[in-house]
Design brief:
Blueprint: H1 2-74, H2 80-124, E1 128-131, H3 132-146, E2 152-158, E3 163-166, H4 168-186, E4 193-202, E5 206-213, H5 220-223, H6 243-252, E6 258-262, E7 269-276
Parallel strand pairs: 2-4
Antiparallel strand pairs: 1-3, 4-5, 5-7, 6-7
Helix pairs in contact: 1-2, 1-3, 2-4, 3-4, 4-6
Length: about 280
Amino acid sequence: MHRTQEVEQRNAELSTALQQLSMAQHELVRAEKLAGLGSLVKGVAIEISAALSNADMVAMTLPQQVESLARLHAAPGDDGTRLRSQVAGYLGALDESHKQLRQSLDQARHVIDVLQQLAVDQTSGQRRSFDLLASVREICDLTRLAHRHDPIEIIVTGEPELILDSYPGSIGQVLNQLVENAIVHGFSRTGEGTISVRVWPSGHEAVRITVHDDGIGIPPADLSQVFAPFFTTRLAQGGSGLGLTISRNMVNGILGGRIEIASPPGSGTTVTLTLPRLAPRSLG
């Protein structure tokens, strides 16, 4: 009887420990996802601030331009040619100010729209039809903003009108993780480099996305471990070692594809995603 009670107690303790471990795992995954989104938000906030500052400066000059034009209109008669020239000059300045104001506001509005859609996709797990190349460009545009002051070039090429019925939020999370990895790890020595992202079809039912960087590459001893949970070479610098693990789980799971990584000595690193155009309807 005593033995049975002891076993039951230990089973209960084990069950509690497993639940706590599961909760901790979900929280780590959630934190890793939010960290990626947070880096984009930071860059976007800077871009929006700059656009609105430009708009504000232009807006401050408009009253003065309008006042000058009004004074000219109210002035006593003058030489017609000279008057027309002055009016044309003020009108040209007003037109240019209006163009700059509209451009700055349109830029801010576009960035906000892209970020809102990204937030919906990544936080809700929304499934929808979308143009893959357009989505990849938007993700890379936001990443550029996050690293606008770094000597990093991100080049996106590929075939348009590759329509997927899938999860753009998950693809965005994976792509952002791969690009950030290239920046942090691939360019750790020089702080500069080029990342080439390519999108193209793979047969009639699949697509491929490659992310190639011309950085230092991955040591052969580390290459087989990069997808292992908690494997990181930056633990002391805040790396969790979960980014690529989560990416692989997303690609293999909800996206129904596969992820491969290659890093020949002296040739940088290339990660290839192969994804079905029609994501699985269920994970079961």
